[in-house]
Amino acid sequence: METTQERLDNADQLGLQLVRFLRLLDRASHQFTDKPHGVEKAGYMLMAHLVINGPKRTSTLAEGVHSDPSTVSRQVAQLVRAGLVERRADPMDGRACLLAATEDGRQLFDDLRTKRNQHLDQMLATWPLDRRQQLVELFDALNTDIENYRPQMATAIAEQRKATR
To answer: What pLDDT is recorded for position 98?
Structure first.
């Protein structure tokens, strides 16, 4: 059974690797600075969400990408101007609108996704497929835990554990 100190040491190692990963991602994003249609990286994230998950209201889209609705609204306006996203009447509520990727938006997303996949495949070319799949599974688990983590709850649980010892 591992000790608290061993778990904290492991958390420290993971933290260092995550910081390293974020720096490398930042460096990589600067290598690919072309902005087709003049759209920022955050806009592409919204468009990708709409392509993958289908039309959404602005508030639902903001929740889905863990962002502020006013920020998403501003970014969506840029995507609409670029012809990559369109507003449609919500069939469930005619007063509201849904955001949807246009055909141009879908094509751009597919092109960028293909390029990304080719780069990732080249980076991991020496990895066997089972190890690559393990990475996908671990990344998915990490992302899910990050999405679900609530520091206030974690603190309360830790205090509860101390009290029961």
So the answer is: 94
Helices (H), ranges, the chain: 4-31, 41-53, 58-64, 69-81, 103-123, 129-148, 151-163
Q: Do 60 and 16 fall within a single domain?
A: no
Say whether 32 sits in a helix, a strand or coil.
coil
Is 46 in the same domain as 88?
A: yes
Could you give the CA distance from residue 26 to residue 70 in angstroms, rounded to a whole number? 25
pLDDT confidence band for 41 (50 / 70 / 90): confident
Are 75 and 38 part of one and the same domain?
Answer: yes
Structure tokens at 76: 């969506």
Residue 130 pLDDT greater than 80, yes or no: yes
**Could you tell me which residues are beta bridge partners of residue 89?**
97
- What is the domain range of residue 24? 1-31
Using the predicted structure, report yes or no on whether residue 33 has a pLDDT greater than 60: no
The answer to whether position 143 is within a domain reads no
